[in-house]
Amino acid sequence: MKLGSKDLRDSEPTNEELAHIQRQPIYIVLDEVLDTYNIGSLFRLADAIAATKVFLCGKMEFPPSSRIHKAAVGTENWTPWEKCDTALEVVTKLKKEGVFTIAVEQDTRSVTLSHMAHQFPVAIVLGHESFGVKKEVLDIVDQIVELPMLGVNKSFNVWGSGAVVAYKLIELLHS
Length: 175
Fold this sequence. Notes:
This protein has about 180 residues and is α/β, with parallel strands linked by helices. The chain has helices at about 5-10, 15-20, 35-50, 65-70, 85-95, 135-140, 160-175, and strands at about 25-30, 50-55, 80-85, 100-105, 110, 120-125, 145.
């Protein structure tokens, strides 16, 4: 069903619709993402891929927030999420639970998307727009992945990077 922007903002799923969502074994971990529009867009991404949960870590805005709500078009109301002190704490916990962890970041240790290892369940770790994923988190994740930047600009928006990696993982999960 195709909805217009007003329809998207005014639509709420029923409890029956929510009960039929098959959550995918994918977590999204936000390491102090600053921009509320990125946060809202990442909630939309999490809903789009039926992520198991979104973790909002550290000093960042979280729902309820009118700015997040505007970008999230309400998805923050039914997408499972949790506010946590640090991404390091969340990644450490997830790894103990057997979750494979992938940070999306430019780093000397990173591999390109085409060489991304994967196993499920998996967590995608995304960082602050200017400072990225914290070093202590990069040091413990299972893999660091970066997107090839073929033009002049050498960075990509955090929600866009998350979407590229998330949909690649969805493709691998369902292939």
